[in-house]
Amino acid sequence: MTVIQATSPGDAWVKASNHLLEHGVKVGNLTEELNVMTEITEFKSDDWFEPHFRKIMGDDRIDFARTVTFLKPEMSKPENPFIVHTPVLEYKFIKDHWHQSYWGRMVAWQGTFNQVENVIKILKTGKAVKRCELIIFDPSRDSRNPYSQPCMLAIDVKPRNGKIFNFNYTFKSYF
């Protein structure tokens, strides 16, 4: 197994991508390497990442992605002023195809389940759990075309002793 040490998620992405480009094996038109893990050894700010990512991907692609993903969540407002209302975060999507974005799948899985709020609720208990995940891959949509699947499949968070001990994400990229 190859372990790539990084100081933030952005640093991990850059280092994993560079590793794949340098050491990946060509399989058809794909470059891949199996059994690679990133380890975030000390968390530092990712403020440097967006300008770096924009340089690689281009401003037009990043700006477009922002317009089709989500708006900042807002606290819900009471529909009836005479009924006690408990405010909750409401996620409003910009486009009808929100289910195609990672964020859309995380906050409203198949239109019904907010995985982000569920993970936060689990983490707040402070207990070690076997499964605390955000699933991105939707077999009903993504399995139909094996060449057009999300790069990130899942995020698996392992809370231990009141801290996030292990934060795994499963991703695949095509270079």
How many angstroms separate the termini? 21 Å
Which spans of ≥5 residues are poorly predicted at pLDDT below 50? none
What is the C-alpha radius of gyration, as a whole number of Å?
Answer: 19 Å
Helix content: 25-40%
Let me know the average pLDDT: 76
Can you tell me the overall shape?
A: globular
What's the helix-strand series? Answer: EHEEEHHEEHHEHEE
What does this structure look like?
It is a single chain. The model has no long low-confidence stretch (mean pLDDT 76). The longest helix is centred in the first third of the chain and has 15 residues, at 9-23. A hairpin with a 2-residue loop joins strand 8 (152-160) and strand 9 (163-171). The protein has helices at residues 9-23, 49-57, 59-69, 102-107, 115-125, 139-142, and strands at 2-6, 25-27, 30-32, 36-40, 74-75, 89-90, 133-135, 152-160, 163-171. With 175 residues, the chain is of the alpha+beta class. Strands 7-8-9 form a three-stranded antiparallel beta sheet. Strands 1-4 form a two-stranded parallel ribbon. A two-stranded antiparallel ribbon has the order 2-3. The protein is globular and about 65 Å long. It contains six helices and nine strands, in the order E-H-E-E-E-H-H-E-E-H-H-E-H-E-E.
